[in-house]
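User: Can you predict the 3D structure for this chain?
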Amino acid sequence: MDKVILKNLKFDLAVGFDAWRRYGKPQPVSVNLEIHPRSNLEAAAAQDDVNLSLDYGKLYKSISAVLANSGPYQTIHVLIDQLAQLMPEYAFLDIDILFPKALLQVNKGVLYRLQVDNSTPGVMTPTLTLDIKGIACSCIIGVNPHERLYKQSLSMDISIPVITTALGPEPTETHYTAELHDMVDEIIERVKGSSYHTLEALASAVAQVVTLSYGHTVAKVRVEKPSAIATIEAAAVEVTRSKTFFENKDFWKVKRP
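Assistant: Here is the predicted structure, written as structure tokens:
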């Protein structure tokens, strides 16, 4: 399917809390857009005429003009709604919004990913996913005798689907708040005091915190272990666990000497 892409638009915007839990402070934001028009780009290609396509230059200027004079945004949802309203007619829309410095102990930032299916007239289906990328933590992890002596550095990604039924500035759930900071801080502290033989058990324990302690219905957790094998970048395990999975299970009790 044909699409027009605007890659890595850079802004400084005040959205929710910054890494220091201060409201209304600008922080770097990177936006990626993929717009799938209702009709393909064949006519523009055949006649080599930009007027028959989606003019990405005009779109960029309109986005930049609006964002330069807006904010602070109380939540990420307000920013997403404003961006969506600036889009031309489309069948499908992808908006990625990355906050590279949103959390102090997260190396790769916080990513919000909106996908909208508008292919059926009168029926718009948006979904929103939150990715926390590169949480820096450490613990005793591994089965080898030398791995039981020292903590190893780990990198962790957490992906949480944010269920939404409509675009708008006032959703029923607000995820870009201090609660996100609290969740990451708790995970880092609990991992620091833990000891496991397997990445599988540790990843499941983290998913347990995300779902049971912070109310998310499902969590995808990826844990990378850079020191696992000397000749590769990292070994990793990724698990997806629902809240109901943890009924009568407690992976934080799986501790190894």
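The first helix runs from residue 42 to 47. The longest strand covers residues 123-141.
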